[in-house]
Each structure stands twice: as C-alpha cells, then as structure tokens.
C-alpha cells in the first residue's frame, strides 16, 4: 500500500462514527418562476450537477429514497429501479463485470455510457465490454446524496460516449458536524447443478465530516468481505469426446446439459468463485476562497484482494476429485487440459487511486466559471493464474502474472456559463454554457511467466499490450426561454481524437501498430419544450454522438513473426443520431412521462468473426432502434403513505447492415431486450416504519450478433427474468435504525452469460450523530 493510502486508512478507521440519518423527501417546485413548468423536477437534497436547464429527460433518486427502497450493498444498486437501466451486477462487490445497460445499448457496450462522481470520471473507457466496468467501488452507498441520469446524447458538455446515458453521483458534504456508521450482512443459498453452498457478504463503513468557517471536510472508510457464487462452468462439448485410450481413468459426476446454442455438453464443475476483500477510503475538502468561489479536492483509494476458487464434480473410481488429464465419461474420452484448463483458480491484487480538484464560482450573476481536473491511477493491478494443472497448482507452481501498473486516465476542463444581462438565473431564462475539455487514456498490460503463480515475481515476458488515446473538445450550448411557455437549447460539440503508441508483443518481440490515428467530428444538439396548461410539458430532443474507438478496440490482434495479424487497422468511430419526443405531466402528487425514442447508429463497434476461427472488433454497418418509455410516480396511492413508481420500456433494436457478418442482418442487437420494466412501491404507515416492494423484468435477449444463442437459461446465455425484492426499515429513535431485506424473493434462476444471484437475505444496522 502506498504511504498516502496507509495514512488515509489509519485516519478513517480511528474515527468514532455514525450512520446517515434519513432525509426528508422534498418534492421540487412543480412550476417555473413565470408559471410555466421547468424541464426537470429535482426531488430533494442538493441539486443535480447535470445540465437540468436542457429540456430533455433526466431521472434521479435521492439518498432518502435509496435508504427506504433499495438493499444497496454497492453504489450501482442506486440505479436498480430507474427507467431503462440495468447494471449487470453478478455478486456483492462485483469489480470487473458490472456494466451499465441503457435504452439502446446492452451490457456489452460499456463505452456507450458515462458515470461520474462529483465530476470525476468513473467510466473505464480503456475498452468496451464486460471487463471495462465503471469504477463503482470508488463510491460507497452511504455517501451518496443523490444520483441523476441524463438519457441520450443531448448535452454538448459530454463526449460521444454519452450516446446511452450519463450517470452522475453527487456525494455528501457536511454543513455542520456529523458522523455515521453502518454494519451490513447478506447471505444466499446458491444451488446449481451439483453445487450447493451458502455465500455471504459482510460490510462495515464509517464516516465523519464538519464545516468550520470556510472549510468543509469529509473523511470516510468502508470494508467489504464477500463470497460470491460460482460464475464460470467447466464444460466440454459432447462432440469433443474421442475413443478411450488404454489406462485412461474413468470419471463420474459430470452433468449433461445443453449450452446457449442448444448443443449438448457436459458440465464438469465450477470455477471463478470469488472471495473478495475490498477497502475504500476517501478524503474530501472544500474551501470557500470568497463568498462566490469554492475550491474542492477529493482523494479516493480502493483496494481489492480477490481469490477465485474452483469445484470439480468429477470423481475417479476411488472417489477422489479429478481436475486434470484425460478422463472417460460415459464411454468417451475428454481432455481437461486442452484447449484450455477446465479448472483454473485465479487471484487479483488491486489498488487504485483517484484524485479530483476543482475551483468553481457560483455568483448566479452574469458569468460563472469552473476549472476542474481529475486523475485515476492503477497503482497496483496484478492478476495471477496458474499454467500448472490442479491439484498441484493449489500450492503454487508455474503460472502467469498480468500487470497493469501504469494504466489510467486523466481529465481537465475549463467551463463557463454566461447569462445575458436581464436574464433570471433562478428560472434559467437565458444561459450560454461553453467549455474546453481534454480526456486522456493510457493502457499498459504486461503478462509475465512466473515460477509461483500465487506469490512469485514476474519472470520472462509472455505478452504485452499498450496504447494511448486523447480526446480534446470544444463545446457551446445556448438555452433560453424565448416565450412564456417555450424553452429551447441549441448547441454543438467539436472533438479531435488521437491514438498513438499502440503496440503488441509476445515472448520474442514487441511490434508497433504503425502510424498514429486521428479523427475530427462535430456533434450538433437541439432540444425544445412547451408548457401546456398548468401541468403538461411537451419536449423534443435531437443529438449526434461520435463514440471514438477505445485503446482496447483499436490496438488488437496477434503477433505472427514480424507481423500483427487478426486486426482491423481501419476501425471507424461509431456515429449515432438519437431523437426523443416526450409528454410529461407533473403535479404535487406525482408525475407521468411518455417518451418516444429513436436511434440510428452507423459503424457500431462489435466483436464479430474476422475469419472462421478468429473474432475481433469490427464495424457493424447500421443498427436501428425505435422505442417507447413510460414512467409514472404517485404519492398516497389508495391509502395515505403509499408511494408507487413504475416504468416500462419497449425497444425494437435491429441490425440493418453488416457486410462483415451478413447472418446478423435483420437480427436483434445483442443484450438489448425488447421489453423491460421495473416498479417499486413504498409504504410509510408512520414516522418509524418504511416498507418497500420492488419488481424488475427483462424480456428475451441474445448475446450473439446472429441471435444463434437461443437458450438463455444456460451458462453463456442471456435469459429473460422477473425478480421481486422487499425491504423493511425501522427508525428506532433519532439516531438508530435497522433494515431487513430480501433480493430475488421468488428465487429466480437467471443468467447474463454468468448466473445471477439467487434469493439473498440482508440486514443492516445504522447509527447517526448529527
């Protein structure tokens, strides 16, 4: 651990702390200053940092609602019931596959959404896919003030990765002394094939903060021990079986099944059962340089020590477990060591650091400005795996270390807003936002051989993969209320993208990819709204997004002699036009919104067959998505104290052109279900008790471009599901509270390549001093 990490952890854990006190839910004013409706209703807490002046769709949830309705063990749980969103969270503390899905983007498209916390980029734009999940662990659920989501690429303030959505976490800063503590526990009984086990997660967090004159500070720490269910199945296709050779051991215990393509296979056991120990610490400072200017600094540290275990179903004639070698199952011989090891444990040792610094004015006068910078660093990031076979590898032996030290990203921006003389800053009558931004990404990956995969030092190089990208942007957008019932935004974003330093290597050599790449693009944005009567607002939005290739997509391939092969050096940016038309009714009792959305994407970036045996990222000619989203909220439904929020999304997302893979034309876009819905009902019979029931549904979806994976209820498959969750919270007194919950009450067995959790019970104890 670095010196500053040790200091921050020691200071955090030495505090006497208490939990977050439940906040009041304060409905935003349903009317603008001139009697017309605003574009966004902010529901309590500090205001969102998203551009709420733009007349388009923004949904959000406050800390009070999270605490009342969600069994939140990780920060991404706050998004659980928001319209059209799904986070592919596989277990508590999922650090490497919890990808966000939006209206027209599946969980394989992590680079088509953006996640921020207090203005710091958490999205991992080094690649696109399950392995490039946002850094959710840098935000603890207890520190969230509110979360807001901007749907679609309708703000010029964000790059083309905002094609799906922008998620903004606003975390707590105190205005007086406060301290918090929380203890949490969760457990599930997981049963699958021949696996039956009890998995648990234990959490603890502490935080303290204060404001003393011009200085506000916040110090927090959290710890998680988590046992996840097995995520990967060890399998062999039935068709791989060969005639037995003399002396081959006979194994029993294999389970016959069918894979995601309805092909017969044998399930031999499980791998990748994570046991995780995660720590997070954060220091936040804010200093008022003057009445109107504030400087802020954030330091976050996240550590993760993970072991991935295995379980074999196979037994030899003496009843001993079988992990490796050739075995005979039902009269056919199978190799457990090739083409890959059927059973391979793994380990991860990670420490990441985040810095954020900003200076911002808030005069609410003619002109305001902000200077901001952030840095995210992979201080230590080592993945370990054996090459030796089990059971010998349980004690060490030959293996490989994957070291990503030196990887990370940084951002810097200058922003301003000018309000022409005579405009009203409170109602947003007229404001011009503009800025200049730079986002830089650096990927460094070195795979080395080692004599001891558990603890050995790196030896000779096995492979290497490096590259850099940079996005420089200028933007401006003008929002004005040009008539009492009308509001409009017109803007644009100019971007210049560069990629350089790409190289890939094997044990013998490291080869550069050749010439650097650069692209330029312009993305116009427009939105307009009209208030009708006292309750209704109509909105229309149109925006272009250009999503540049990530380092991982651009610099790909393999080394053959002195050449890089199996790559697409001419990979194009992904270009999308998105439009939406909304009708929204807002009253003191609730709201209703209906939104039609359309997206046309050219040159979508997907992995697809390059040859008969090799797949690589290539451009998909065109994808068309048409959809409808309905959202409804209401207070005091049927009885006083019952609040209901529900949403339904229909998305018809079809591949219309793809010369590289004609079999995919006319098929559904992977991982985008046609139907999805969620609802949550919250009942507060008195000031002490809160009960909630949540429901989530997702329809049929596919993982392959040609939709050939028709069996969703299988390892590698993507299934439909319906899941119900419950939560009960009791405010014991002004400071103490307890909560109990069950996720997946109906014990649904469902899949997203890996198995999702089964019925999970949770409990938490909180204490607050404020």
Automatic annotation (TrEMBL):
TonB-dependent receptor-like beta-barrel domain ranges (all copies): 309-745
GO CC annotation terms, alphabetical: cell outer membrane
InterPro entries in UniProt: Beta-barrel_TonB, Beta-barrel_TonB_sf, Plug_dom, Plug_dom_sf, TonB-dep_rcpt-like
Major location (coarse): membrane
Superkingdom of origin organism: Bacteria
Family: Belongs to the TonB-dependent receptor family.
Residues annotated as domain TonB-dependent receptor plug: 52-166
Organism per entry: Noviherbaspirillum galbum
GO molecular function, one term: siderophore uptake transmembrane transporter activity
Keywords tagged on the record: Cell outer membrane, Ion transport, Membrane, Receptor, Signal, TonB box, Transmembrane, Transmembrane beta strand, Transport
Membrane topology: Multi-pass membrane protein
Key word Transmembrane present: yes
Upper classification of the organism: Bacteria, Pseudomonadati, Pseudomonadota, Betaproteobacteria, Burkholderiales
Subcellular location: Cell outer membrane
Transmembrane residue ranges: none
PROSITE patterns named in the record: TONB_DEPENDENT_REC_3
BP GO terms, sorted: siderophore transmembrane transport
Signal peptide positions on this chain: 1-22
Keyword hit for Signal: yes
Name of the protein in its database record: TonB-dependent receptor
